[in-house]
């Protein structure tokens, strides 16, 4: 079935013949959104492979930290909790929210939980703080405040957020693949990044990434259906062969080789191990509230930026840049934050890597059903799910980053400096600070400040003033000795 609009009148169906995909098509609006079942399936696979690394990385981050009693979380239990929560929340977003936005344990938030919360309390207490943050997110959605904040963002600034996400995921791809790396602190240099691991492109893994990037872009230029997924599969096979022949010493987080035992037994020991208010007894009410606020702010605006960027790229927004059914999507995101705390996998949030699936043509929640099902399978086949090296998956982020950039940059009014400069700040601060939240916060503050400086303060929605003030307080908290 063609995925593009056509002027031809379809041939009449025989009596009793169901329409294409039947109830599935009607429920997920697959044809209505110009997609197809094959596109959604490819998109679901592409998103899963682009974010499957979280099954390995999240346990490393959380498992390496200790709580105030010296306790560490079990790695095997963390793998199960991470995959389980990703499966549940991604399926929920797909079936209820009907958008191709997958969810999993949020990077950045898990670091806050591991390094700021856990050392001051027990692990169940720390996860209780995350659950509370999720409840607050749901409350903000239920009162309409969260959607009001999103609707208050000017269209030009929305496009800046989308572009910033595009640049951010491109940098994620370059860093995770080893194409660029962080300069060691011992070098005493102001240059933060370098080419490869030592200023040069060395080793087979980087070559696999380069070939994967070229293959992905070539397939996109040729308009080959399934370009991103084809590239991931082909380069994974290449990586497995290279690793077997060349005996590569390190691929980073994931080694591309067939596991000796592909089946793993899930351990649900951490699920439900949470103390909602126990942390307040350890750190006091004020500090506890500030901890919840820190988690809340990161989850709130990371998800907001991701939802804006992906919905725009998937053409799910209207002329004002707003997506129908947004409140439902935002509420599910709040559920996901709380679910991450309840499973001890840290706050779960919308993953920017979902752009890999959107790049494959995913436009509906059915892609999420595929991704969520793969995470569920990963509970039992984690060794196989995590054999795709980042060097094979990250070229997708490079390609999708370009597609986002090229589609949004022309829609910013560069002649209006009160929009152009905040958009510019937003799009640069996301990759430069490695944070969607920081990019949004600095962009919002700049927007409000410049509109006031231009004598156009009345044009700024009240919600933007409030959010800019919240971000200013957030950035001043360490200086004020509140964190």
UniProtKB/TrEMBL annotation:
The chain crosses the membrane at residues 41-62, 83-106, 126-145, 157-175, 203-221, 228-246, 283-308, 366-385, 421-450, 462-482. Residues 1-20 are annotated as: Disordered. It is found in: Endomembrane system. Its main location: membrane. The keyword Membrane applies. InterPro entries: Azg-like (IPR045018), NCS2 (IPR006043). It comes from Streptomyces similanensis. The keyword Phosphoprotein does not apply. This is NCS2 family permease. The lineage of its organism: Bacteria, Bacillati, Actinomycetota, Actinomycetes, Kitasatosporales. Coiled coil: none annotated. Keywords: Membrane, Transmembrane, Transmembrane helix, Transport. Belongs to the nucleobase:cation symporter-2 (NCS2) (TC 2.A.40) family. Azg-like subfamily. Pfam families: Xan_ur_permease (PF00860). It is a multi-pass membrane protein.
């Amino acid at each position: 079935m063609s995925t593009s609009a056509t002027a031809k009148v379809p041939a009449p169906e025989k009596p009793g013949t169901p329409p294409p995909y039947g109830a599935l098509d009607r429920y997920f609006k697959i044809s209505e959104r110009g997609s197809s079942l094959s596109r959604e399936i490819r998109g679901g696979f592409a998103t899963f492979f682009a974010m499957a690394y979280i099954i390995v990385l999240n346990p490393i981050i959380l498992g390496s930290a200790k709580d105030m009693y010296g306790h560490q979380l079990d790695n095997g239990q963390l793998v199960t909790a991470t995959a389980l929560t990703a499966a549940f929340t991604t399926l929920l977003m797909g079936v209820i929210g009907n958008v191709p936005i997958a969810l999993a344990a949020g990077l950045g938030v898990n670091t806050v939980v591991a390094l700021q919360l856990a050392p001051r309390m027990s692990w169940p207490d720390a996860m209780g703080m995350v659950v509370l943050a999720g409840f607050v997110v749901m409350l903000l959605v239920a009162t309409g405040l969260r959607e009001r904040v999103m609707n208050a963002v000017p269209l030009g600034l929305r496009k800046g957020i989308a572009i910033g996400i595009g640049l951010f995921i491109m940098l994620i791809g370059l860093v995770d693949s080893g194409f660029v790396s962080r300069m060691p602190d011992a070098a005493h240099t102001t240059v933060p990044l370098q080419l490869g691991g030592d200023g040069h492109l060395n080793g087979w893994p980087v070559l696999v990434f380069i070939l994967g990037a070229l293959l992905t872009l070539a397939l996109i230029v040729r308009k080959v259906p399934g370009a991103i997924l084809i590239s991931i599969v082909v380069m994974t096979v290449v990586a497995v062969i290279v690793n077997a022949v060349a005996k590569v010493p390190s691929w980073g987080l994931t080694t591309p080789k067939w596991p000796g035992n592909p089946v793993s037994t899930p351990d649900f020991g951490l699920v439900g191990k949470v103390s909602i208010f126990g942390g307040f007894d350890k750190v006091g009410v004020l500090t506890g509230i500030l901890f919840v606020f820190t988690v809340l702010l990161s989850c709130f605006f990371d998800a907001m930026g991701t939802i804006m960027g992906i919905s725009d790229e998937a053409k799910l927004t209207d002329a004002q840049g707003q997506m129908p059914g947004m409140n439902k999507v935002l509420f599910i995101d709040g559920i996901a934050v709380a679910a991450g705390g309840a499973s001890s996998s840290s706050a779960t949030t919308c993953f920017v890597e979902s752009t890999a699936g959107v790049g494959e043509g995913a436009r509906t929640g059915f892609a999420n059903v595929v991704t969520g099902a793969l995470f569920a399978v990963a509970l039992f086949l984690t060794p196989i799910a995590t054999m795709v090296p980042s060097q094979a998956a990250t070229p997708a982020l490079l390609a999708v980053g370009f597609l986002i950039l090229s589609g949004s940059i022309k829609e910013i009014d560069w002649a209006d400096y009160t929009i152009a400069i905040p958009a510019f700040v937003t799009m640069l601060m996301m990759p430069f600070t490695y944070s969607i939240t920081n990019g949004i916060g600095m962009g919002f503050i700049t927007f409000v400040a410049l509109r006031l400086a231009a004598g156009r303060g009345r044009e700024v929605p009240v919600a933007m003033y409030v959010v800019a003030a919240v971000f200013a307080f957030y950035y001043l908290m360490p200086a004020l000795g509140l964190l």
